[in-house]
Amino acid sequence: MQEHRRYCSQLLVLLVLFIISLYVVPILGKNGNGLIEVDVGVILDADDQMVGKVSQTCVSMALEDFYALNQNHSTTRIVLHKRDSKGDVVEAASAVVGYLPDMVYRSLINYRDLTSIELPFAAIDLLKNVQVQAILGPQRSSQAKFVIDIGNKTQVPIISQATSPSLSPADNPYFIRGAQKGSSQVESLIAIVQSFGWREVVLIYEDTDYGRGVVPFLTDSFHGISTQVRHRSVLSLSASDDHILQELYKLKTMQTRVFVVHMLPFLASHFFTKVKQAEMMNKGYVWIITDGLTSLLDYMDTTVIDSMQGVIGVKPYVPKSSKLENFKVRWRKRFRQENPDVDIFEMNVFGLWAYDSATALAKAVESSGIGVSKFKKPVAKENLIDLAVIGISEMGPRLLQSLQNIKFNGLSGKFHLRNGQLQPSSFQIVNVIGKGEREIGFWTRKYGISKNLSFSSSKNYSTNNDDLGAIIWPGESNVVPKGWEMPTGEPKLRVGVPVKGGFTQFVSVERNSQTNAVNATGFCIDVFKEIMDHYLPYDVPYEFLPFETPDGESAGSYNDLVYQISLGNYDAVVGDVTIVSNRSRFVDFTLPYTESGVAMVVPFEDDDRKNAWIFMKPLNMDLWLTTGVFFVFTGFMVWAFEHRVNEEFRGPPSKQVGMIFWFSFSTLVFAHKEKLISNLSRFVIIVWVFVVLVLTSSYTASLTSMLTVQKLKPSITDIRDLIQSKEYVGYQQGSFVEGLLKNQKFDTSKLKNYSTFEQYDEALSKGSKNEGVAAIIDELPYIRLFLSNPKYCSKYTIVGPIYKTAGFGFAFPKGSSLAPDVSRAVLNVTEKNVMTKIEEEWLDEGATCAEQDGARVTSDSLTLDSFKGLFIVAAVASFSALILFLSIFLYENWDTFASNDLSIREKLIAMAKTFDEEKDNSSDASKRKPPTGEGMAVPATATTDCPQSPATSDSQLAEWIFSPDEGLSTTETSIPIHETIEMVEINEER
What we know:
Layout: H1 2-28, E1 36-44, H2 52-69, E2 76-84, H3 90-96, H4 102-110, H5 118-130, E3 134-136, H6 141-154, E4 158-160, E5 175-180, H7 186-196, E6 200-206, H8 209-224, E7 228-235, H9 241-252, E8 258-262, H10 265-277, E9 286-289, H11 291-294, H12 302-306, E10 312-316, H13 322-338, H14 349-368, E11 375-376, H15 386-390, E12 392-393, H16 396-404, E13 407-410, E14 413-418, E15 421-422, E16 427-433, E17 436-444, E18 448-450, E19 493-498, E20 508-511, E21 518-521, H17 523-535, E22 542-547, H18 558-566, E23 572-573, H19 581-584, E24 587-589, E25 598-605, H20 621-642, H21 653-666, H22 679-709, E26 713-714, H23 719-725, E27 729-732, H24 737-743, E28 751-754, H25 757-766, E29 775-779, H26 780-787, H27 790-793, E30 796-803, E31 811-813, H28 818-830, H29 833-842, H30 868-892, H31 894-897, H32 904-916, H33 922-928, H34 941-945, H35 954-961, H36 977-989
Parallel strand pairs: 1-2, 1-3, 3-4, 4-5, 5-15, 6-7, 6-8, 8-9, 9-10, 19-22, 19-23, 27-28, 27-29
Antiparallel strand pairs: 10-16, 11-12, 13-14, 14-15, 16-17, 17-18, 20-21, 24-31, 25-26, 25-29, 25-30
């Protein structure tokens, strides 16, 4: 029994020891001090003194500094397993070469840099034999992509300082970029080019993943600021000196003088040495280098630096701090101990990124709670590839999540990972001077270019080169290079000019009979000379070449002249060349420097003054009819108001109708003799008289104008009239107007071309029926000049513009950098008095004709629209009076209107009879008939001396007694009026 108990106790002890071996020992770690050791691989280039060796020391010091600072509460310890990316794993690689993944194997076969073959072997060795939880490096973009592929397969985080944008954390979830992406510097490079206004650049880059990665971003960004990438020069890492020189001489023959170089020091050392040898580091050249080279200038040989004097570069800005300075001192001492045979003891940003990356990894390992982890291996099968045998890391996803949330202030600045990569910071702009570099400014994403990093709250984004310090350019020049020059040994800018017999004010070409030198003059030539000589930011030598045949005649139309640029015969065309769409397919035009448009020149017409019906033309037909209607309407209103109370508006129907027309029309001359009794009539007439006053005044003014100024009316007002009447039409010889007229469906047989103003005058004077033309169709600048001559401005006028054009412009080859620069210069010239002076010199002949500014053709007849307001007022007044009149009339006859004994027809008849009856106005009757006994008696002789005929009517007697102008008057005797009427009645009875 005791033996059984002892046996059980032994089994219990063994079980406890087994549990301790499973759980306690891994927690305590391999060193037995309670810390968990985490294996991390480091793949760096041990032969690279500028980056590899510097980074190795930085990584070791980073972990030492981290654990020294956190020794009291740290539970993990990273153990580094270093591998050389170039040599140390060759033997190990040969042991696993048969197990390489097909993907990696195919990539290696096609890849140009054969030194990278060792990288997958080093990574597989670390993963298979060491089972590392993360890998730091490699730093070269061409090497990193293979290790990143392996990390994605095994779910092991790869922390690399590879900057190529082609390596994206978005496509590789286990890739952590512990550096700024190469494309983050593009905006700073663009800002520099934009600040100096350079419009063309040449990209020069190495033929590697690092070199090719940034090029698409640069090209797109330059296009965004209207700067053209004129050429791309790609150099292999193994390019010979002769090949580099050959490429440089090719670039030297181009016009562009701004070069952006994107390469690492290995190739850059050879390249810039040859640049100086090719004499391309002289005055007028611009060389801009990217951050990969700028950050490593301290490691370049002095002879290379001497060949780079005047170069501008950008690099990530590293904030200064006491912590950084202390680290540099410790690093130099440590680096001398580890690399006694290396003479370079300068820190660079890649080493600082390596230090911060190692610190970030240590923080992530500490915060993730990672333990001793193994790789999950698949079920054993035959013929598994090596990566499948390795399996998948158990702690990789947890460690990756911790890394992505890391944020702290490192030696390189703020170390903040977002979307798997370090966020960009400010960039420092430097100028290579003397034995090294000199700071000239900074670039930030928010404020652009600035001399320092102290910003006011009101500062905006700037690309002003004044915000940079003084720059010493290549050739020890302090003058900003123009960025574009004529190539060495190339001829001057060949400028084609048209040859023409007339219109010499615009362009004229003459040859010196002795020297055969070309002398071009004219308005267009002077504008071009002013721009090229005074308004371009660089000098462009040029010469004028006439577009002519061997006998001195014009070699073709303007379309033919412009097309010579696309054929390579001219570098530009200057003259009175109009910007039209079909020409722009072959060339680039500048902005126009003259007004635009096509118009007609037609003779004045002077026949209207002889027209017998010219008095009808001051008013158009609508106004005549409306006026007539209102005359009748107003007469009717007055008759209606006066009919019951005024004897003058009563009588037979014919008399009343005549009175309606007579009274209203008599207001034209204010000659009506009928007195108005009704206040409503007076109100209507007051308004109507005002309308008549305005109408008659306007009519008189218009008729006077027609009889004196109507001679300025053009004979033709619409181009469609020319087409329909099939008149002959003239145009300028060689002009695009010929094609325009054909497109407008003009009969080709009716088109005639002319080349001088004298021919214009002769053709227009003859007319279309006498072998001349009815109109000349040409561009406005020519027509303005033609009509500025006093001989022509009184005979002809402008109709139009009938067609819009862009005006005159200078033509350059497609994609020419001169076109945008000259366009900007055109704006400067046209906005200043210099253009006015040139116009006065060539196009102003001092004419004083009113027609020279262009008579606009409008109708001379007055229209109804101008008098609508007057007629509306008259109509409102009349209808208001009519409504008031009807209201009073109905009120007075309401008994009849409201009677229930009468039908509607009978009511209307009764109302009409009442309206026709004379109104008995007692107040008026009392005024007209004084009381009996009053007044003077009629003498007795009145009845005997003036017997009345029996046929004499009461009305005739009334007419004899009453004077129309006096109303109720008496005779010269003192006989009362009523007694006289009684005596007349007695005589009639007798």
